[in-house]
């Protein structure tokens, strides 16, 4: 059966939220992102795009391109709150939806045409969101996720577009291949080298040639170019891993500081595990030197969520990983192989005092926030970690430039 | 070298010894049985370097000599014979010829001298106990021992002999079993850690046996002699954790329940628990025991209520259901008692009945840290 899939996207979400908070920013060039030397643009208003600014660009460069822009550091918590308001409205209005990121939604409106007229219904919902939240929003409506997403991007800003059934190929044909989700800079170059510029060209390619050039991805790109996509709308997002990383303002060789940061990261993630009643069986450490060479190491361990087991493992791995006597640009850790469960107490290693201490610390954190108690060794890295429960079934808050 | 032996008698002995031989050996000679013939006495040995077991067989022979015969081949052929006398003749061309009623079979053998010698115990202490007691002690404890290569001491069973009693302990740091016999004792105080493999062999051989087992031991090796069989093994080196210290002394919350009922409820509920953590939750209030489990990933959920005798405060405690079923399965009493103090302290499981005179079993299981 043919489906009706709606893709909803909040336009320049972070920028719109900032403008909502501060009316004076209306119609002024605005950049949201890291303000430090290493900061990148997370979102930029349409006014700045004329200057060549785009998200993911180093903030320094963006400022040079558009010196009159207002730069705001941004606050993920505020954005989440606004995103939740929009989510609530959508939840109320549609039978099945997927929140694929902080500012993007897919909704399955299959079968609703019979009663409402899906396009009219979506347009009314868009109006309602605009009216109730004051945030500009765009949507695309078609038979699958990919075409709807492309349609939304074409409709932007603050508009909507419907691709009638059977016209998917025609709609995609004149567009640049860059518009196909999944075609990033690398793939774009590869495809350009093949002489492909428009989606039309890809549509005309035999699928096995695409597969030979780009591997399994080639087939997917070919299918997407032809408007074929059967991925369902998944209402719940299962976390497969949790991670955190930090890029320094200035590259560092201070091992004590690095260890302190790793301890703070581990402590925070371990707390997230315990709060979500999860255990991890695989830990990994990532390190990027100033020359951008990135190394990582992972280790299988028995299922655990205890600080005193995880911290030494992380520090051990860091010790073997950090062997180049070079400045370090980034460190990060990741816990994967997650399962639901609680920490199995060890007869000999765990004393009642430590268990009670953990319990008390977690209770304090639950009441007064993640950062209310920490190890002294991790105090140097106060800004590490997240404030949100990662196991709430929602997708991680990813900055705009990080996703494809 | 020539001898005549009954096929089933030989097979029976070799099958027992065959348990020592590993499936893959770094030393090819260890794939063999060592036959050491001395007139009517044939000593057959098998070894994996850690453990060596030998049995003395009565055969019909006049000659002497030692050879190493491929174990797999010999066992395979022996299994096919009905009861009959077999004649083994060692030929000059490095083969041993077996003659049966139906034909002749030749297998290549290796020099007996290549076979590693079993260690001689220097200056051993000794104790004697009945085979079945030893087998029971092993059976009651070995399941609780660990598999962690990083903590080798926990991969064995701790033998603790004193002049008053014998104690056997096994633990993997999550569960612990202590089995004590007050009706047998040793001549002097001694402690050693036995690896699992020889214990499993002994358990298999000695189950139900009424004969006495002589245990000799020193710091590095132990030797078990019974009937015509001798097993010598290397002990696990290291200090066993101080298990007495972790057994909680004061446990005000005491639950008494039918073992079978408890076991089958835990088993049923555990099917609905998380497939990796096997976590279940016990809620005890008044005389009601509530057992529940949940697998959030698949929305599976189960809950059962049992009536029990309970003294103490209402409490909630989480366990790995695997540990509970293993322990309850290992007991054979009608009733069990579970003593607890706090949700983050060990639960102590003891049988309320069904023990022999002088037998004493204590099982410890560590809970999981439940939130809130």
Which characteristics define this entry?
heterodimer; A: 404 residues; alpha+beta; DNA polymerase, domain 1; Dna Ligase, domain 1; 3 domains; five-stranded mixed β-sheet; five-stranded antiparallel β-sheet; 39% helix; B: 372 residues; DNA Polymerase III, Chain A, domain 2; nine-stranded antiparallel β-sheet; 7 helices; 19% helix
Tell me what the structure shows.
The complex is a heterodimer of chains A (about 400) and B (about 375). Chain A is an alpha+beta fold and about 400 residues long. Chain A folds into 3 domains: about 1-165, Alpha-Beta Plaits (2-Layer Sandwich), CATH 3.30.70.270; about 170-225, Orthogonal Bundle (DNA polymerase, domain 1), CATH 1.10.150; about 240-400, Dna Ligase, domain 1 (2-Layer Sandwich), CATH 3.30.1490.100. Chain A contains 14 helices and 13 strands. Chain A has helices at about 15-20, 45-50, 60-65, 75-95, 120-135, 145-155, 170, 185-195, 200-205, 205-215, 215-225, 255-275, 305-320, 350-370, and strands at about 5-10, 30-35, 40-45, 70, 95-100, 105-110, 135-140, 160, 240-250, 280-290, 295-305, 330-335, 340. In chain A, the strands form 3 sheets. Chain A has a 5-stranded mixed beta sheet with strand order 5-6-1-7-8. In chain A, strands 9, 10, 11, 12 and 13 form a 5-stranded antiparallel beta sheet that branches. Chain A has a 3-stranded mixed beta sheet with strand order 3-2-4. In chain A, helix 6 (about 145-155) links the parallel strand 7 and strand 8 (about 160). The longest helix of chain A is centred in the middle third of the chain and has 21 residues, at about 255-275. The two termini of chain A are about 30 Å apart. Mean pLDDT of chain A is about 85; it is low at about 400-404. Chain B is α+β, with helices and mostly antiparallel strands. Chain B folds into 3 domains: about 1-115, Roll (DNA Polymerase III, Chain A, domain 2), CATH 3.10.150; about 125-245, DNA Polymerase III, subunit A, domain 2 (DNA Polymerase III, Chain A, domain 2), CATH 3.10.150; about 245-365, DNA Polymerase III, subunit A, domain 2 (DNA Polymerase III, Chain A, domain 2), CATH 3.10.150. Helices cover about 20% and strands about 45% of the residues of chain B. Chain B has 7 helices and 27 strands. Chain B has helices spanning about 5-20, 70-80, 130-140, 195-205, 245, 260-270, 320-330, and strands at about 1-5, 30-40, 40-45, 50-60, 60, 65-70, 85-90, 95-100, 105-110, 110, 125-130, 155-160, 165-170, 175-180, 190-195, 210-215, 220-225, 230-235, 255-260, 280-285, 290-295, 300-305, 310, 315-320, 335-340, 345-350, 360-365. In chain B, the strands form 4 sheets. Chain B has a 9-stranded antiparallel beta sheet. In chain B, strands 15-12-13-14-27-26-25-19-23 form a 9-stranded antiparallel beta sheet. Chain B has a 5-stranded antiparallel beta sheet with strand order 5-1-7-8-9. Chain B starts with a strand and ends in a 7-residue tail after the last strand. The relative contact order of chain B is 0.12. Classes of the chains: A alpha+beta (about 400), B alpha+beta (about 375). At the A-B interface, strand 13 and helix 14 of A face loops of B.
């Amino acid at each position: 059966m043919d489906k009706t899939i709606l893709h909803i996207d909040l336009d320049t979400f972070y920028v719109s939220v900032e403008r909502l908070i501060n009316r004076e920013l209306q119609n002024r060039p605005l950049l949201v992102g890291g303000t430090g030397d290493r900061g990148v643009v997370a979102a930029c208003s349409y006014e700045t795009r004329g200057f060549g600014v785009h998200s993911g660009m180093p903030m320094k460069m963006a400022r040079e391109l558009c010196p009159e822009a207002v730069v705001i550091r941004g606050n993920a918590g505020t954005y989440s709150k606004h995103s939740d308001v929009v989510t609530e409205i959508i939840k109320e209005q549609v039978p099945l939806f997927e929140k694929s990121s902080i500012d993007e939604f897919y909704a399955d409106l299959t079968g609703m045409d019979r009663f409402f007229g899906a396009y009219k219904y979506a347009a009314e919902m868009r109006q309602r969101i605009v009216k109730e939240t004051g945030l500009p929003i765009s949507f695309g409506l078609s038979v699958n996720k990919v075409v709807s997403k492309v349609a939304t991007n074409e409709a932007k800003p603050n508009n909507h577009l419907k691709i009638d059934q059977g016209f998917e190929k025609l709609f995609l044909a004149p567009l640049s291949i860059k518009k196909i989700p999944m075609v990033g800079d690398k793939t774009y170059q590869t495809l350009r080298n093949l002489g492909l510029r428009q989606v039309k060209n890809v549509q005309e390619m035999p699928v096995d040639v695409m597969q030979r050039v780009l591997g399994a991805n080639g087939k997917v790109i070919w299918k997407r170019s032809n408007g074929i996509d059967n991925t369902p709308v998944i209402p719940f997002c299962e976390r497969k891993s949790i991670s955190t990383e930090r890029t320094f303002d200035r590259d560092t060789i201070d091992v004590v500081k690095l260890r302190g940061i790793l301890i703070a990261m581990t402590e925070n993630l371990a707390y997230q595990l315990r709060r979500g009643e999860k255990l991890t069986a695989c830990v990994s450490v990532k390190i990027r030197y100033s020359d951008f060479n990135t190394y990582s190491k992972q280790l299988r361990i028995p299922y655990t969520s205890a600080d005193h087991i995880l911290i030494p493992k992380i520090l051990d791995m860091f010790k073997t990983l950090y062997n180049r006597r070079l400045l370090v640009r980034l460190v990060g850790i990741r816990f994967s192989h997650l399962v639901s469960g609680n920490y199995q107490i060890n007869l000999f290693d765990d004393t009642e005092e430590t268990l009670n201490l953990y319990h008390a610390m977690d209770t304090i954190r639950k009441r007064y926030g993640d950062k209310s108690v920490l190890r002294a060794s991790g105090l140097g890295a106060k800004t590490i970690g997240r404030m949100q429960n990662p196991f709430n079934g929602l997708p991680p808050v990813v900055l705009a430039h990080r996703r494809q | 070298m020539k001898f005549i032996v009954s096929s089933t008698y030989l097979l029976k002995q070799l099958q027992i010894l065959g348990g020592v031989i590993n499936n893959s050996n770094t030393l090819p000679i260890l794939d063999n049985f060592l036959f050491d013939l001395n007139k009517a006495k044939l000593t057959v040995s098998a070894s994996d370097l850690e453990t060596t077991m030998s049995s003395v067989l009565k055969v019909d022979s006049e000659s002497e000599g030692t050879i190493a015969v491929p174990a797999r081949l010999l066992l395979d052929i022996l299994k096919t014979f009905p009861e009959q006398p077999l004649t083994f003749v060692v030929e000059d061309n490095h083969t041993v010829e077996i003659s049966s009623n139906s034909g002749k079979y030749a297998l290549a053998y290796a020099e007996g001298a290549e076979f590693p010698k079993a260690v001689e115990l220097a200056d051993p202490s000794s104790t004697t106990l009945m085979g079945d007691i030893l087998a029971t002690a092993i059976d009651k404890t070995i399941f609780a021992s660990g598999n962690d290569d990083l903590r080798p001491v926990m991969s064995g069973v701790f033998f603790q002999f004193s002049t008053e009693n014998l104690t056997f302990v096994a633990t993997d740091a999550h569960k612990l079993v202590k089995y004590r016999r007050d009706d047998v004792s040793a001549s002097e105080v001694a402690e050693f850690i036995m690896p699992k493999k020889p214990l499993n062999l002994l358990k298999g051989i000695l189950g139900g046996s009424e004969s006495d087992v002589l245990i000799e031991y020193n710091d590095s090796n132990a030797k078990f002699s019974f009937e015509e069989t001798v097993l010598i093994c290397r002990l696990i080196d290291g200090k066993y954790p101080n298990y007495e210290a972790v057994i909680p002394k004061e446990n005000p919350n005491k639950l008494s329940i039918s073992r079978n009922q408890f076991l089958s409820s835990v088993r049923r509920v555990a099917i609905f628990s998380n497939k990796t953590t096997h976590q279940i939750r016990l809620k005890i209030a008044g005389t009601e025991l509530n057992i529940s489990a949940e697998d959030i990933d698949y929305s599976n959920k189960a809950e059962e209520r049992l009536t029990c005798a309970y003294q103490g405060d209402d409490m909630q405690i989480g366990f790995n259901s695997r540990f509970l079923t293993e322990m309850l399965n290992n007991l054979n009493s009608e009733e069990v008692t579970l003593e607890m103090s706090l949700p983050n302290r060990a639960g102590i499981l003891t049988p309320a009945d069904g023990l022999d005179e002088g037998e004493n079993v204590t099982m410890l299981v560590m809970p999981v840290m439940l939130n809130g």
